């Protein structure tokens, strides 16, 4: 039942100004950056605020061993916006790649983890954000590409 948090795929950092932050990382030699590929239709999608989710802007950078994601949540209410307002810029979640999204979500729920948001596409890909902030210090996400 355990083992769903074994293959780190990405670290997501919330920021106030996406362009400014990308520029800074690039000045340090970190890049290239690309837009997060929000593509495909979800057959299941449960998020606290769909409009806020749709409005979030992301930039990603593939490093040798992990992907960095920068997220600017925007002005609409969302868990990410509240985090940024309350805690400031910083790591919001760690994303772990899994072989089976459904099984990993079920395993997380069996561990007693609450779900913040989840989505599934017809091909079985998707994500699930677990509410692990209080005990893990950050949100833990499972995803299948």
From TrEMBL:
Domain of life (superkingdom): Bacteria
An example molecular function term from Gene Ontology annotations: metal ion binding
Alphabetically ordered keywords of this record: Metal-binding
Pfam families registered for this protein in UniProt: Glyoxalase_4
PROSITE patterns xref list: VOC
InterPro entries: Glyas_Bleomycin-R_OHBP_Dase, MMCE/EMCE_epimerase, VOC_core
Keyword Ribosomal protein: no
One GO BP: L-methylmalonyl-CoA metabolic process
SUPFAM superfamilies: Glyoxalase/Bleomycin resistance protein/Dihydroxybiphenyl dioxygenase
Domain (VOC) ranges: 7-145
PANTHER family: METHYLMALONYL-COA EPIMERASE, METHYLMALONYL-COA EPIMERASE, MITOCHONDRIAL
Protein name: VOC family protein
Protein's organism: Ensifer canadensis
């Amino acid at each position: 039942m355990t083992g769903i948090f074994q293959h780190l795929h990405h670290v997501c950092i919330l920021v106030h100004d996406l362009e400014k932050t990308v520029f800074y990382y690039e000045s340090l030699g970190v890049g290239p950056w690309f837009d997060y590929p929000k593509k495909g239709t979800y057959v299941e999608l449960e998020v606290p605020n769909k409009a806020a989710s749709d409005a979030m802007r992301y930039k990603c950078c593939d490093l040798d061993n992990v992907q960095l994601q920068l997220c600017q949540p925007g002005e609409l209410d969302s868990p990410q916006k509240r985090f940024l307002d309350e805690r400031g810029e910083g790591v919001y979640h760690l994303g772990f790649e899994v072989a089976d999204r459904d099984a990993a979500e079920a395993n997380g729920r069996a561990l007693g983890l609450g779900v913040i948001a989840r989505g599934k596409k017809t091909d079985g890909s998707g994500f699930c954000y677990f509410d692990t902030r209080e005990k893990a210090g950050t949100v833990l996400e499972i995803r299948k590409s």
